[in-house]
Specification:
The complex is a heterodimer. Chain A is mostly beta strands. Chain A is built from no helices and 12 strands. Chain B is built from no helices and 13 strands. The chains are: A mainly beta, B mainly beta.
Chain lengths: 118, 116
């Protein structure tokens, strides 16, 4: 069975601080995808990143960066110089990568609510 | 096509009534998913379509729930005899498949159901 744990329920930071959101996952699959989604108050889940389990290179996109460590089954997300617009709930998720019959359903963590205070 | 569209955005219904939600996926996406999200939780998988075929259903999907995707385009999710426990955000997502690979899923804004 797949499981995603986001231990931080809520985090508050002051604007311009850096913040890291933790994600730990469990899966028996040898190949899988990891995701981060952002859910602002409007409710829509906004796709941020997908990572293949074969690729452990860290990724940076603007103020966002992701640290994937297969050895510790973690896929952490860092926002540098946080802004008020970053306030949202962030979800880490996991799915199969390759399967002839699989649906690639996403297994989500419970989310981390980030509040950036001006 | 600007993304996944869900209607209505909000629905308030009395316990025992039937409700139906609609999802229009991104046009070139052949896979469509329904998820349910309750307050303070992450979305939970309900069911999945590849084209018009419903290939997987979660045990969360009781007999009161039915989903269709006629002609492999839009999808509907119907809940019969609603219960207060059905109150949640219902999210639809779509994705493309290339052989046995899958692209990332894009989500709609959801339909928030309140059963009173």
């Amino acid at each position: 069975a797949q499981k995603v744990t986001q231990a931080q329920t809520e985090i508050s930071v002051v604007e311009k601080e850096d913040v890291t959101l933790d994600c730990v996952y469990e899966t028996r699959d040898t190949t899988y995808y990891l995701f981060w989604y952002k859910q602002p108050p409007s409710g829509e889940l906004v796709f941020l990143i997908r990572r293949n389990s074969f690729d452990e290179q860290n990724e940076i996109s603007g103020r966002y960066s992701w640290n994937f460590q297969k050895s510790t089954s973690s896929f952490n997300f860092t926002i540098t110089a946080s802004q008020v617009v970053d306030s949202a709930v962030y979800f880490c998720a996991l799915s199969e990568a390759y399967s002839g019959a699989g649906s690639y359903q996403l297994t989500f963590g419970k989310g981390t609510k980030l509040s950036v205070i001006p | 096509d600007t993304g996944v569209s869900q209607n209505p955005r909000h629905k308030i219904t009395k316990r025992g009534q039937n409700v139906t939600f609609r999802c229009d996926p991104i046009s070139e996406h052949n896979r469509l998913y329904w998820y349910r999200q309750t307050l303070g939780q992450g979305p939970e998988f309900l069911t999945y379509f590849q084209n018009e075929a419903q290939l997987e259903k979660s045990r969360l999907l009781s007999d009161r729930f039915s989903a269709e995707r006629p002609k492999g385009s839009f999808s509907t999710l119907e809940i019969q005899r609603t219960e207060q426990g059905d109150s949640a955000m219902y999210l639809c997502a779509s994705s493309s498949s290339f052989g046995s690979m899958n692209t990332e899923a894009f989500f709609g804004q959801g339909t928030r159901l309140t059963v009173v």
